[in-house]
Amino acid sequence: MKIILVGLNHRSAPLEVRERLAVDDVAPLLQKLVASDEIDEAVLVSTCNRVEVVALTRSVEPARHRLRSFFRRDLDGGNPGDGSQLEDHLYEYTDAEAMRHVLRVSSALDSMVVGEPQILGQMKDAYRAAAECKASGPILNRLFQHAFTTAKRVRTETRVAERPVSVARVAVDLARQIFEDFSDKQALLIGAGEMIEAALSALRSAGIESVAVANRTPERAADLAVRFEATAHGLDELPHLVSEADVVLSCIGGNRPILTRDLIEAALRNRRHRPIFVIDIGVPRNAEPEVDTLDNVYLYDIDDLGAVSDQNAEQRRRETVLAEALVAEEQQRFDGWFTALRAVPTIKHLRTHVEKIRRTEVDKTLAKLEIGELEREQVESLTRSIVNKILHAPLSRLRREAEREEGMAYLETARALFGLDEEPEAPSASAAAVADDAESE
Amino acid sequence: MVIQLHQLTAAIYLIAALVASLGLALPAPRLGRISLFLLGAGVIVHGCGFGAMHVDGKTPALNELPVAVSFMAWIGTVFYLVLARRARLVSLVVLVAPMAFVSVFVAGLRLTDPAAVEAAAAPGGSWEHAHVLLAGSGLALLGVAGVAGMFYLLEHRRLKSKQRIGPRFRLPSLEALDRVNSVAVGIGFPLLSLGVVTGMFWVEKTHGRVWVGSPHELWSGIAWLVYAIVVALRFGRRQGARQAAASAVGGFVFLFFAVIGLEFFA
Lengths: 441, 266
What we know:
A: Rossmann fold; elongated; B: mainly alpha; 2 domains; two-stranded antiparallel sheet; 9 helices; flat
């Protein structure tokens, strides 16, 4: 059995291609995919940054064609082109590489922003959808569970996701070092551009409930205010608004700073010197540098935030090395389990073979003896016990050795020694269950 | 019994400190919470140690510096544990646990033989008993306010100088530290004041008059007045949080040397 992954992501395909291929309801597509002869199990991951199919197959070549045609016809069916353009964006991994890729994606090492937390939830959703429509089976179930465990290890044992890198998130992270509880805090956003919108979203998700938006043109502020349940104001209200605000975030055009030292000083007096966090991401600056000399005022401009963001990104990059090592370790562990599945047919064959011999000999002997039912059962039990005890050590060794590359020699020797002249069957999904049993013994 | 309990306390605090340090080095936040749990266990045993002294009918002689430090460490640790759950103060366990260990270990050196325990338990009536407990508790809480103030100033400085947040050790927020400062001063100063009042009754009972003019009396009175000014500024809302933090640090340093330091050098 082989694992194959075909897909595209933010690095291999532009947004318009990813948008075209994104799907909401994956169940019908997955059912269609596993109904084909080439694919035994499948999971479809569809997020804004990637569309990937992980599949289990008995033969790689036909599965590859099937999956590529799945991308062209089923996912990109509405596109009038011949699909050759799409082919250029697709990547493909098999076996160890495919396992590693699934583990890396779950651990957010393949994400646009390394360490972002959303991907794990998206992978869980994709797996759940596949499990519900019975498109995934024992082997992909195991792979995804392993991927989730790996993601948890990466998150807890490295600091790859510890520090934010976007300017808005960095600002919120810094605000957490000043304020303990955001629910009773007030934020004032000056401006109404994209940066303000991103910051507003970050502040909302951090728990700030009371937000005021001030802008030169109050209509634009009102537009933003409606969408984020904030209040809209004109710049003439600034002295009053700054006095009320714990967090002031400004990104507005203009040649002169609107947050002057005098304005902030007066606001501090009004608010009895409670701290104010001023985030100035405007260029040219919206706050006078002298504001930072005031006690209980913490002023960060775009360069300060950028420096923190760069440091955080650098830290993430350093931590990525550790995370990759963890992923490699976990991939080897899964690979060992997956490789061990090849021992299952030989083990089953050997058991059947020996059981057949036992059955024949017991029947022959019992036919000659005149004994009761109880004694017959005891003979059965005795012979079964002898067979199990004799087989225990070689079977355990076979399972262990099968996880290694050179394990094939052991399997061949076992077949030769026990006269299992027929070639064993290929491992099947039920083989995975047997392997599970074997591991738990 | 007192010796064994003190030794057991020191051992638990030491394990808590090691677990917290390991949690910081790995990093593994779960170890921080385990360390907090161990610190709680240590506090219970520590409290039993002081309880054992009282069962003997004696007052722990808190004018013995090691015993005083051990008692204040106990009160301070109890206060930290109460607040640690509410504010984001779990990270401070890596500092609190070693401090608690060192305090108890130092006191343990003094209490290694039964004769020392007997000597450390000063005879006296209920006024002395009340004075020692109230003043010691007040001093411990004002110590906590001072430590919180010190961390506030460190974090304030880091934020002002735009230094990055340490990759492993993150101090609590300024607001949390200010809250600790405020609560500690709010409870600690009344306790200290009650300690001063009960001390006056004790002196009156012993010497027949309230004022005997000892350096301890004089400096304790001055320290109380200094801290009263700190409290008035703090709760009169005439200070910002940064100034309140600086006042708490300065106030406690003065108080400590005026009350404990004087005894030590004398």
